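input
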Amino acid sequence: MEIDKRIISFIKKHHVLTLATFDGVSAYCANVFYAYDTENNFFVFYSENKTKHFNDMKTCKNVAASIVLETKIVGKIQGLQINGIAAQPANEMKKRCKNIYIKRFPYAIIHTADLWTLEITFAKYTNNMLGFGKKIIWKKSE
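output
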């Protein structure tokens, strides 16, 4: 099943996600700038190897994330909650990811951190503009 176009539209309107990782003992959150690969349904972001979330992802590839529209107006509330798999792309995929990221953030061409992807396995999109508490659920086919 293809991911709902309203979810993709929401993802493309934003550029920061909150990434939640786990090291086997404690959870941790980090905010990362992202680009989105529509074709492969994953986020692309950079992380330096000295960060906690980088080391957590090395230990546990299962992550969660969220993107939210900040508003106090109840009728405009929108947000996306995600479960996914973190990975470091290699070879041709790494080149593709870097190109996608640099297209969105041209200044990142000088970035020396490591590239990561977050493949979406589950998404719950809440959008009160579609009706109060309206949720769109997507799960990756197995």
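quick obs: The CA atoms of residues 63 and 130 lie 28 Å apart.
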